[in-house]
Amino acid sequence: MGETKKNSKATSILKNNPLTSIVKGNIGIIVVLIIMCVAVALATDKFLTTNNIISVLRQISINTYIALGMTLIIILGHIDLSVGSIVAMSGTLTVGFIVNQGLPLGVAIVAGLLVGTAAGFISGFIVANFKVPAFIITMAMMNIASGIAYVYTGGQSTRITNKIFIEIGTGYLFNVIPLPVVYMVVLIILFSFILSKTKFGTYVYAIGGNREAARLSGVPIKKIEIVVFTISGLLSAFAGLVLCSRMYSGQPSVGSGYELDAIAACVLGGTSMTGGKGRISGTVFGAMVIGIISNGLNLIGVSSYWQLIIKGLIIACAVLLDGQKGKLELLKKKKLAAN
């Protein structure tokens, strides 16, 4: 009898273990990730070196910052095409404020982050209040942000030598863990908590799942949409800050295609393009897959042009699979209702 109780307790602990839940919920993408790691490791002996692993983690971290915000937006049932341009705009402006305008480091960083946050807020405000499709308004914001970056810099990169600023993107915690990876872990924990444990997260899922039902339930839809787009702008601005710090310069061309990688990470991680479904852990695994694909193809010597084609095909396949999964779930529900 005592043995049975112990076994049932152990089973209950396993079922309620967050790690077990993460593995179960993302088993497909985890298997894909393992297969990819093995394939790349067999193709090149450079993949499992310490320097390369650190490089991959840094690369993944930038995409993850952006993808966290994109996850919230896609769960809402929207899309944000402006994130890559906000990365470029915020990064170049922050560097320019320090180098050209001579602003104190802290003031310049806050100003750069506020610019990106404002861009997200404007997109969210228009989407929420004027019913303009997010695809259209964020495409407009993409051009505006990119144009601001080029106009401000004259199309030239701005070099920065401020040691404290450079440390933001190149420093290490305990001389072991890159600081961009530390930021990534903190943000993953924060947004996992927000989505799964707060009323705000519940509202995001409710709006994406059934907008009309959410409205009738008293969910402040406009407010949530504005906040989510604002968060996306802030995270993109932060990504731009870290990226420029890593590159020792502000470059207006940086961030091109970052929206593609962020969307790919979300979709690969199981976030439904129709809204209402998605999880932070899935997005993180999706970002890992995208990062390893890019790194592996670079190590093997595949052209960056081919990499764009491969990433595009991956997104297309993921969306198709998501659509088929949705149809299967609908059929299951109909069968259960019929029974």
From TrEMBL:
Membrane protein topology class: Multi-pass membrane protein
Highest taxon, organism lineage: Bacteria
Cited InterPro entries: ABC_transp_permease
Lineage: Bacteria, Bacillati, Bacillota, Clostridia, Lachnospirales
Gene Ontology molecular function terms on file: transmembrane transporter activity
Annotated CDD domains: TM_PBP1_transp_AraH_like (cd06579)
Subcellular compartments: Cell membrane
Signal peptide: none
PANTHER family registered for this protein in UniProt: ABC TRANSPORTER PERMEASE PROTEIN YPHD-RELATED, ABC TRANSPORTER PERMEASE PROTEIN YPHD-RELATED-RELATED
The keyword Flavoprotein is annotated on this UniProt entry: no
Protein known as: Ribose ABC transporter permease
A Pfam entry, by short name: BPD_transp_2
Keywords on record: Cell inner membrane, Cell membrane, Membrane, Transmembrane, Transmembrane helix, Transport
Single GO cellular component term: plasma membrane
Membrane-spanning ranges: 25-44, 56-75, 81-99, 106-128, 134-152, 172-195, 226-244, 280-299
Main location, first listed in the record: membrane
